[in-house]
Amino acid sequence: MDTLLQFANLVLHIDKFLGVFIHQYGAWVYAVLFLIVFSETGLVVLPFLPGDSLLFIGGAFAATHEMNLGLLIVLLVAAAVSGNTVNYLIGRAIGPKVFNTHIPVLERFLDRAALQKTHEFYERHGGKTIVLARFIPVVRTFAPFVAGVSQMGMKRFQLFNMAGALFWVLLLVLLGYFFGNIPFIRQYLNVIVLVGIGAAIVPVVIGGVWKMMRKDSRGGAVRKPNGG
Questions:
Q1: Which strand (E) or helix (H) includes residue 141?
Q2: Per the database record, which ranges form the VTT domain (predicted)?
């Protein structure tokens, strides 16, 4: 519980933590930001890292000349692209093996038909998914992994991976650069971060719940005549 509270405090006051780190360790902040963005996008077990907030706040510090804007953008784009690539390769390597283990316990939970549907979905909509997922916390961590599991083509994946990374980094860093030091935004940054995360996650959750409810209602409609 203490660890969760400390992490929540870090996310809500990340501008203060980052400012202290810059003053104490200087250029090492670039390595830390690279590592965090790489880990959030590259390691499926770390979807909770505050990537969006870091990009915005990094841009704000670049506006006050505490960080170099060009270097920040280049490193963050490199971290986002390489992170997604590693995540994709992990999914591509272990996905088919997991679905073909022939272990009874796993076969109970893994649906090969669902894997085929996922592959077909990524063939049709994978590009849009990879780009748009950049702006949705948690989803952006799993999207490249699922793309790898579904065997989305490497060249096609990398095209949208790089486009999405560039768009994501440029938008959030430049928003921070131009607006991050406005007194009102600086004062209520933690609230803005929470609203932004909520605005990205809530529609995804509602969509998932809606699909589950529709699936259940259709299932009930099919079962009802048989039971009558």
A1: helix 139-149
A2: 49-177
Which residue in 63, 70, 81, 82 sits closest to 30, CA to CA?
A: 70
Q: What is the pLDDT of residues 64-101, one digit of tens each?
A: 889 999 999 999 999 999 999 999 998 888 876 665 65
Alpha carbon 54 to its chain's center: 13
Domain ranges of the chain: 2-188
Count of Cβ atoms closer than 10 Å to residue 176 Cβ: 26
Q: Is-above-0.85 flag for pTM? A: no
Q: Are 167 and 134 in contact (CB under 8 A)?
A: yes
- 3-class secondary-structure state, position 103: coil
Q: Which residues contact 125 (CB under 8 A, 6 or more apart)?
A: none
List the one residue out of 138, 141, 196, 199 whose CA is nearest residue 172: 196
Angle at 134 between CA 130 and CA 55, to 5 degrees: 150
H-type helices in 13-111, by residue range?
14-25, 28-42, 51-63, 69-99, 104-109
Joined tokens for residue 17:
């933590």
| Neighbouring C-alpha atoms within 13 Å toward the C-beta of 9 | 7
CA–CA distance, 106 with 224 (Å, rounded to integer) = 31
The candidate with the shortest Cα–Cα distance to 78, out of 30, 117, 142, 25, is: 30
Tally of CB atoms within 10 A around 118: 19
